[in-house]
Amino acid sequence: MKKIVIAAVAKNGVIGRSNGDMPWHSKTEFQHFKSTTLGSPVVMGRISFESLGSPLKNRLNIVLTKNNMELKDRFPDIIVFDKLNKVYSWCEYQKYEKIFLIGGGSLFPVFMKDADEMIISIMDFNAEGDIYFPDIDVNIWKINSRDKRDGFEILYYLRQEKK
Ligand SMILES: NC(=O)c1ccc[n+]([C@@H]2O[C@H](COP(=O)([O-])OP(=O)(O)OC[C@H]3O[C@@H](n4cnc5c(N)ncnc54)[C@H](OP(=O)(O)O)[C@@H]3O)[C@@H](O)[C@H]2O)c1
After folding, report:
1. Over the chain, what is the mean pLDDT?
2. Nearest CA to 121 among 50, 27, 20?
3. Which H helix or E strand runs over 23?
4. Which pTM was predicted?
5. Which of 95, 100, 125, 132 could be disulfide-bonded to 13 (CB atoms 3.0-4.6 Å)?
6. How far is the CA of 57 from the centre of ligand 1 (A)?
7. Substitution candidate for ligand 1 out of 21, 36, 64, 114 with most atoms within 8 A of CB
8. 83 pocket-lining for ligand 1 (C-beta < 6 Å)
9. Which residue's alpha carbon is at the smallest distance from atom 36 of ligand 1?
10. 81: Cβ below 6 Å to ligand 1?
11. Is the CB–ligand 1 distance for residue 80 below 6 Å?
């Protein structure tokens, strides 16, 4: 099962704000996110999930939380786990070919240790915020291809080193 980090990162590394808000709204970037992730499980932290307002459609939403397991009562269609290794074993058991690790700030550093691939949209602008994407270790991650779109560029990274 492939584990794929997907994120949108401003030129200055910002990905979000600690009140949960996304600092920008890019329809075209969200369209890329949507078409890439449709049909596959998306794994996220509780704050990112709550900032969405409602579960992402046509994808299994898997939410990580230690203190808010009752989220499941409010959103019966989501799956809630309190540990990341439980997410991986459950998804392996379900025989998913790939899962997307979609954020947020507290989880990207952990997700990056486990991921096989990363799909990172670099936005054409700086953004105001206090949550940043972690540094990408060039000894571990190599850009396999890039795709320039209107307002952002998508970098496709492959892991070079064994985990
Ligand atoms: N630009 C992008 O691509 C992108 C993508 C996603 C999110 N974002 C932005 O990122 C921000 C949110 O990031 P954040 O760091 O504040 O929050 P987050 O990572 O989305 O969620 C943090 C919460 O997840 C749970 N959690 C974290 N690690 C865990 C673990 N190992 N096991 C179990 N539960 C765990 C905890 O929930 P409990 O407190 O409930 O226990 C924790 O409070 C927002 O501004 C959002 O808009 C940006």
Report:
1. 97
2. 27
3. none
4. 0.97
5. 132
6. 19
7. 64
8. yes
9. 65
10. no
11. no
Q: Which tokens hold the place of 100?
A: 């997307």
* Domain containing residue 135: CATH number: 3.40.430.10
In terms of residue numbers, what domain contains 34? 2-159
Residues 6+ apart with CB under 8 A from 104: 15, 16, 44, 45, 47, 48, 51, 131
Domain count, the chain: 1
Q: Looking up tokens 């700086």, which residue turns up?
A: 126
Can you read off the two tokens belonging to residue 27? 């329809």
125-155 pLDDT, tens per residue?
999 999 999 999 999 999 999 999 999 999 9
pLDDT greater than 90 at residue 20 = no
pLDDT in tens, 40-77: 999 999 999 999 999 999 999 999 999 999 999 999 99
Query: How far does the centroid of ligand 1 lie from the alpha carbon of residue 67, in Å?
Result: 13
The single-letter DSSP state of residue 94 is: T
Question: How many percent of the chain have pLDDT more than 90?
Answer: 96
